[in-house]
Amino acid sequence: MRFNEKELLCISKQPSEKAAELGMRGPKKGDVVKRRLVKLVINFLFYFRTDDEEPAGALLLEQCKVEKEEPTAFSVAFLDESEKKYLFECESSEQCQEWVESLTRASYESMRRSLIFYRSEIHKLTGKVSYLLFVLLFFF
């Protein structure tokens, strides 16, 4: 998927589903943990330097695996580069679990599974296929 800086900046300014200041370590060997404002907007995970309004970077949460690494830390790794992990440190295990759940739900794959599930449930209850869900599944 291609995005330009203006598009990403516009998306980063939308209301976030989740936001917090977390410790973050990039995927490069030797990267150290730095405090970053982390925002989940749709299926993008933006990270900002704590004193900047523009994002320092963004992760598109597709084809990735989100895992709890420690009680207060989780990682995001992409399937095509599984050895490169972004590590995030939270204040508590509860906060960590909330982030893992939110990031897992934000992916396209998760949304598509939900649509398929609800389409099946509507079909079971009504005997009909919901046209709206059919259209959503077609375009996803």
Automatic annotation (TrEMBL):
Q: Which residues form the PH domain?
A: 15-108
Pfam families in the record: PH
Q: Which domain of life is it from?
A: Eukaryota
- The residue stretches assigned to a coiled coil in this entry are none
Q: What InterPro entries does the annotation carry?
A: Boi1/Boi2-like (IPR045188), PH-like_dom_sf (IPR011993), PH_domain (IPR001849)
Name of the protein in its database record? Pleckstrin homology domain-containing family J member 1
Recorded source organism is Polyodon spathula
Q: What broad taxonomic lineage does this protein's source fall under?
A: Eukaryota, Metazoa, Chordata, Craniata, Vertebrata
The gene name on file is Plekhj1_1
